[in-house]
């Protein structure tokens, strides 16, 4: 499809299905009835194309990854197969990124199926100057290919959305334990595990021709989850084939627990008598035969596994990244250099990320796994925490090994054999790559510029903000003290020059 078409379509405003109130703090006993959308296939292979001009990726799982996700519930009259094709651009990189996946999980015809596709994207290849608000991908094209195995198929859709994962619950979807669980048996919890919107029209981001032939489909009941507060589809006419909630009384149906089996209809004021004529409607309630759990299967997965108890405070995580960015800016300013991506580009006109990626043969240096450019994590090699900047000596790692490596020195993380190989590839001096102390060049510069450091650098309003009862500047300073390991006392140095205590940090730290 020509780009021109996208441009005309993108003005279509995203349409929510109705004006029902999202009240918050749901009990799991509320519901809404929505009409699905229906499409009569004209071809055996139908390509539904969804398009978004811009999607902002949100860092997840403390791993420097963002995830782009697409999903919803689909009903197909005839047997069918589904393939997803995703393509997008990253500003500053010419090549377009493309990923495909054929759904391998069992798809049933004659009933509703929860389906979805997601792609992790490494955030370390972005030219962002370390502002996390700028993890932007562009011209994002998601193609859902429905191949009907028999002629004259009819499809129905409900609760489709296409976005980055940006869930704000569970402390913004942070925490290593959540990451582990997210990756286990993900396909069983798709799409609810993406925490996308469930009340958009199927046509919201659809730009392909089918859009003009969508009709009203059958009514679908969406039930609330008491943890994430969403309404999610239940398969009310075929409850055994569950969509978003496990059944309550599977063996002893009918479920006689009213808490689990009857759901107040929240949007009843908007419904017509026809919407309420279904056998599952009793007055203002939906009555389920088997009953459903109060929480959706995704929330249940995190809840039952206790991952939520171990969550680090997300505030703390945001501060960690702020402190890391502060260090990066500090080191680069002291070395009087721009952030490496820009500098490199001006020098060689070649994309820095691509250069590192190819230098490492498109593989994670630690495990040797082949990775796509947008799956690469740029590791500093010599740790940022010890005042080494990101430059052309960076290492190409996969997400997992980047997380494990983090602030470790190469000698702490690699085997002897790996260390020798890494030294050859990166060209870092043997003495440096085997060292375990702060970058002496930057420490020197820091001492020489100690007045600038306290009076200008730390005076940045962003660093003077109090978070979690402490000034951010105090934390930045404290992390430097740790790194300098008593060899240099920055406050003493400042006092020597200015005859006072630096005003930008607190005395009692
Ligand atoms: Zn939930
Ligand atoms: Zn029950
Ligand atoms: Zn690896």
Describe the structure.
There is one protein chain. 27% of the residues lie in helices and 23% in strands. With 509 residues, the chain is an alpha+beta fold. It folds into two domains: 3-308, no CATH class; 314-448, no CATH class. The strands form four sheets. Strands 1, 3, 6, 8, 9, 10, 11, 12 and 13 form a nine-stranded mixed β-sheet that branches. Strands 2-7-4-5 form a four-stranded antiparallel β-sheet, with no helix packed on it. The termini are far apart. The relative contact order is 0.12. Bound molecules: zinc ion (ZN) (3 copies). Residues 248-249, 255, 257, 260, 291 line the site of one zinc ion. One zinc ion binds next to loops.
Indicate the topology.
Elements (H helix, E strand, L loop, with lengths): L2 H7 L20 E11 L4 E12 L8 E12 L3 E10 L7 E6 L9 E11 L13 E13 L5 E11 L4 H5 L2 H8 L31 E10 L6 E4 L23 H4 E4 L15 E2 L2 E3 L9 H8 L9 H21 L5 H9 L3 H8 L17 E3 L15 E3 L1 H7 L4 H4 L2 H11 L3 H4 L6 H9 L1 H8 L3 H4 L1 E2 L2 E2 H13 L5 H9 L11
Parallel strand pairs: 1-11
Antiparallel strand pairs: 1-8, 1-9, 2-7, 3-6, 3-8, 4-5, 4-7, 9-10, 11-13, 12-13, 14-15, 16-17
The structure holds zinc ion (3 copies).
């Amino acid at each position: 499809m020509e780009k021109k078409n996208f441009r005309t379509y993108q003005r279509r405003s995203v349409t929510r299905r109705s004006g029902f109130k999202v009240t918050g703090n749901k009990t799991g006993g509320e519901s809404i009835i929505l009409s699905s959308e229906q499409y009569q296939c004209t071809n055996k292979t139908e390509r539904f194309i969804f398009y978004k001009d811009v999607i902002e990726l949100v860092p997840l799982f403390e791993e420097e990854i963002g995830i782009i996700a697409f999903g919803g519930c689909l009903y197909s009259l005839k047997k069918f197969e589904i393939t997803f094709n995703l393509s997008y651009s990253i500003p500053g990189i010419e090549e377009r990124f493309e990923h495909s996946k054929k759904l391998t999980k069992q798809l049933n015809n004659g009933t509703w199926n929860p389906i979805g596709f997601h792609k992790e994207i490494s955030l370390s290849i972005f030219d962002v100057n370390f502002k996390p608000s700028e993890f932007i991908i562009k011209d994002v094209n998601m193609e859902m290919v429905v191949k009907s195995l028999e002629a004259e198929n009819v499809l129905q859709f409900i609760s489709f959305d296409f976005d980055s994962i940006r869930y704000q619950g569970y402390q913004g979807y942070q925490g290593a334990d959540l990451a582990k669980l997210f990756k286990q048996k993900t396909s069983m919890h798709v799409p609810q595990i993406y925490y996308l919107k469930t009340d958009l029209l199927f046509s919201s981001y659809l730009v392909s021709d089918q859009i003009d032939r969508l009709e009203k489909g059958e009514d679908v009941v969406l039930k609330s989850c008491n943890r994430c507060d969403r309404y999610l589809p239940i398969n009310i006419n075929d409850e055994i084939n569950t969509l978003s909630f496990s059944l309550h009384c599977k063996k002893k149906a009918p479920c006689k627990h009213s808490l689990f089996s009857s759901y107040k209809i929240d949007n009843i004021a908007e419904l017509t008598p026809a919407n309420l004529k279904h056998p599952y409607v009793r007055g203002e309630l939906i009555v389920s035969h088997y009953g459903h759990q109060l929480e959706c299967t995704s929330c249940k997965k995190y809840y039952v596994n206790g991952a939520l108890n171990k969550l680090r405070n997300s505030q703390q995580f945001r501060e960690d990244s702020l402190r890391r960015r502060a260090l990066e800016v500090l080191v680069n300013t002291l070395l009087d250099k721009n952030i490496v991506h820009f500098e490199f580009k001006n020098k060689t006109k070649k994309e820095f990320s691509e250069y590192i990626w190819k230098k490492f043969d498109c593989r994670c240096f630690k495990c040797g796994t082949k990775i796509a450019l947008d799956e690469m994590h740029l590791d500093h090699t010599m740790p940022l925490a010890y005042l080494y900047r990101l430059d052309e000596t960076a290492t190409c790692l996969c997400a997992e090994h980047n997380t494990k490596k983090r602030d470790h020195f190469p000698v702490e993380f690699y085997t002897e054999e790996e260390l020798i190989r890494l030294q050859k590839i990166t060209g870092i001096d043997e003495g440096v790559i085997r060292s375990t102390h702060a970058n002496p060049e930057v420490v020197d510069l820091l001492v020489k510029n100690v007045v600038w450091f306290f009076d200008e650098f730390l005076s940045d309003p962003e660093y003077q903000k109090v978070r979690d009862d402490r000034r951010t500047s105090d934390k930045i300073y404290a992390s430097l003290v740790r790194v300098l390991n008593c060899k240099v006392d920055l406050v003493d140095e400042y006092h020597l020059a200015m005859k006072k205590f630096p005003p930008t940090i607190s005395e009692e730290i």
